């Protein structure tokens, strides 16, 4: 309330009570003032009351909530359902304008403030996650695949005669389809097997550049976060190649923002070579509903250009979800989640190592992958991988989600391109395997329940006798192995 209204309240109740209530309000407003002034994530998370107060103040600034507003345009923020209106906090105009997703809307001052604040908070998160050199970013109301399309189309505008995208293979359909959707021609670079690990074929990339000509390449699209046994691309070396050959470099950092190892790779790549833009998913890194991504980079002009390539206005929902979540967590809360994830990756690795050894399997040694793990599935009389695939189905029916079972021999056609042994990131990976990931928000209970259910599946499906190695202590805690597995290196 303004001072005049507070004074009027004093005529109804004791002035001391009004003053006490006013001081509480001032405390809330000071937090909001700090946010608007510094545009950085508060260290301590806010409670729901302060967040809702701010959202209410912002929504009042949008024209659809003006008292006596008379709208005669084709888009006036009218909402038929009260439930929908409440769900969106009456922020109905979206973000951006027809020519720029980051532009301010005259009809929606409050929504525009929220959009600008969210982008600032996202950049703050990116910086303290380890990519200090990042200079600009914005939230896009599209998931990772379509956001990669937006980036490639913008790069294509700068290189109108180019049509190829060099793409070290990763068996995730949306990554490949994003190149096709952008109207470009993918050049698949097969990975190299080093031990258990699939690594980038740098010589293959260099050879293709020489064969196709650097001027004919729109960009090289690399990947950081990926399913084992594939490891992050050698993006430092690739960024150096891109700098030398003057080729744009686009990084698919889908769920890599949560890993200090992967953010360090991006930071170093920008320091020693060329990184034009990197894209990360909102749901995978910040635990919000699917539907948004962040485009970030080191050249403000390019990031601004990508924003202007987005046609029309955009949904505010992903920005709103991220805004609320970040304020709820605060920087302290988010950093705590990152640290917990890192520790639970080691715990998952050790627990899976014990389980695998007990049933005659072993953990795949992919020390460069800091999020995903794999264990072998060597089953008797399973040349076609049917028993291995059955393990995945049995886990799913036991309410275990997120695991992947990959067996050799299963090909897939994606947008007209045939991938041999699709899912394994390789034409000839030597064994069947199962993967699991320690991503942000995972709990120790998740790990314990998963390993226990995996043991039950192994007991049911495997024909060979298990070794006499205990898995569970009397108190229900999973025993740690006598030695640490090499995956500890992945979370430095």
TrEMBL record:
Substrate binds at residues 97-98, 105, 313. InterPro entries: PyrdxlP-dep_Trfase (IPR015424), PyrdxlP-dep_Trfase_major (IPR015421), Sec-tRNA_Se_transferase (IPR019872), SepSecS/SepCysS (IPR008829). It is an enzyme of class 2 (transferase). Pyridoxal 5'-phosphate binds at residue 75. One of its GO terms (molecular function) is tRNA binding. Coiled coil: none annotated. Its main location: cytoplasm. Transmembrane segments: none annotated. The record marks 74 as: May act as a substrate filter by repelling compounds with a negatively charged alpha-carboxylate. Pathway: Aminoacyl-tRNA biosynthesis; selenocysteinyl-tRNA(Sec) biosynthesis; selenocysteinyl-tRNA(Sec) from L-seryl-tRNA(Sec) (archaeal/eukaryal route): step 2/2. One of its GO terms (biological process) is conversion of seryl-tRNAsec to selenocys-tRNAsec. TRNA binds at residues 271, 398. It is found in: Cytoplasm. NCBIfam families: selenium_SpcS. Belongs to the SepSecS family. Converts O-phosphoseryl-tRNA(Sec) to selenocysteinyl-tRNA(Sec) required for selenoprotein biosynthesis. Homotetramer formed by a catalytic dimer and a non-catalytic dimer serving as a binding platform that orients tRNASec for catalysis. Each tetramer binds the CCA ends of two tRNAs which point to the active sites of the catalytic dimer. This is O-phosphoseryl-tRNA(Sec) selenium transferase. The lineage of its organism: Eukaryota, Metazoa, Spiralia, Lophotrochozoa, Mollusca.
């Amino acid at each position: 309330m303004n001072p005049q209204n507070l004074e009027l309240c004093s005529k109804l109740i004791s002035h001391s009570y009004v003053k006490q209530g006013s001081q509480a309000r001032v405390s809330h407003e000071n937090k909001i003032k700090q946010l608007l002034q510094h545009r950085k994530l508060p260290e301590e998370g806010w409670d729901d009351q302060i967040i809702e107060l701010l959202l209410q103040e912002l929504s009042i600034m949008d024209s659809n909530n003006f008292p006596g507003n008379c709208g005669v345009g084709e888009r006036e923020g009218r909402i038929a359902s009260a439930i929908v209106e409440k769900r969106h906090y009456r922020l109905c105009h979206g973000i951006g304008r027809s020519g720029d997703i980051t532009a301010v809307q005259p009809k929606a001052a409050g929504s525009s403030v929220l959009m600008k604040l969210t982008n600032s908070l996202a950049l703050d998160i990116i910086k303290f996650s380890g990519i200090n050199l990042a200079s600009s970013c914005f939230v896009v109301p599209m998931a990772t695949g379509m956001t990669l399309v937006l980036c490639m189309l913008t790069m294509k505008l700068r290189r109108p005669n180019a049509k190829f995208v060099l793409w070290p293979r990763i068996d995730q359909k949306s990554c490949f389809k994003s190149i096709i959707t952008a109207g470009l021609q993918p050049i698949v670079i097969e990975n190299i097997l080093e031990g258990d690990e699939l690594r980038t074929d740098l010589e293959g990339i260099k050879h293709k550049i020489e064969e196709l000509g650097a001027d004919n390449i729109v960009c090289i699209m690399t990947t950081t976060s990926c399913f084992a046994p594939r490891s992050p691309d050698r993006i430092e070396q690739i960024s150096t190649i891109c700098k030398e050959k003057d080729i744009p470099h686009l990084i698919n950092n889908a769920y890599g923002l949560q890993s200090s190892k992967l953010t360090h790779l991006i930071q170093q790549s920008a320091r020693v070579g060329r990184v034009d833009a990197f894209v990360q998913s909102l749901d995978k890194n910040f635990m919000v509903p699917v539907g948004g991504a962040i485009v970030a980079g080191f050249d403000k002009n390019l990031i601004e250009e990508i924003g202007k390539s987005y046609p029309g206005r955009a949904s505010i929902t992903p920005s709103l979800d991220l805004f609320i979540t970040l304020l709820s967590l605060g920087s302290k809360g988010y950093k705590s989640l990152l640290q917990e994830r890192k520790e639970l990756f080691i715990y998952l690795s050790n627990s899976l190592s014990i389980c695998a050894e007990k049933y005659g399997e072993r953990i795949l040694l992919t020390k460069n992958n800091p999020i995903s793990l794999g264990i072998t599935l060597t089953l008797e009389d399973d040349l076609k991988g049917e028993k291995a695939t059955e393990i995945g189905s049995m886990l799913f029916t036991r309410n275990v989600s997120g695991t992947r079972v990959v067996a050799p021999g299963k090909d897939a056609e994606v947008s007209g391109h045939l991938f041999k042994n699709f899912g394994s990131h390789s034409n000839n990976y030597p064994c069947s395997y199962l993967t699991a990931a320690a991503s942000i928000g995972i709990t120790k209970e998740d790990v314990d329940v998963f390993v226990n259910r995996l043991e039950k599946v192994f007991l049911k499906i495997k024909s060979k006798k298990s070794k006499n190695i205990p898995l569970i202590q009397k108190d229900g805690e999973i025993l740690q192995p006598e030695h640490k597995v090499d995956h500890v290196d992945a979370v430095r």
